[in-house]
Design brief:
Elements (H helix, E strand, L loop, with lengths): L2 H8 L3 H9 L6 E2 L5 E2 L4 H14 L7 H8 L12 H35 L2 H11 L5
Antiparallel strand pairs: 1-2
Helix pairs in contact: 1-2, 1-3
Amino acid sequence: MRIGEVAERAGVTVKTVRHYESLGLIESSRLNNGYRDYDDESPRLVAEAHALGRAGIPLERTRPFLDCLTSGSEHADDCPATRPAYRAAIEDLSSRIDELERRRAALEQLLESAEARGDACCEFAGAVAMAGGAR
């Protein structure tokens, strides 16, 4: 199967297929004309890696899921070896959410402080402009 067909069946770009191959997530052989040749399982592996990436699992951690599929499992997460990747992704997302909540709280404090000062700064700037100080 040629790379364009893999990409189309998996719902990704040809560039994505090449990237996944460069990471070792899928393999191809070369035809006599130099074109890549993929097996029939490649679109499923590419689609699964892509879906896992969109769910928050780094591509580098998708190998257990893809190995599970290539071993004949119906679902990529049927194998126990996939559970640590899920746990790590959940922990990573939880940490990122905590950091975002800290940032939001800091911004809320800055806004509250700015609003408590009122418009004194802006009134001063307006008065300077009217007096000809801002050119």
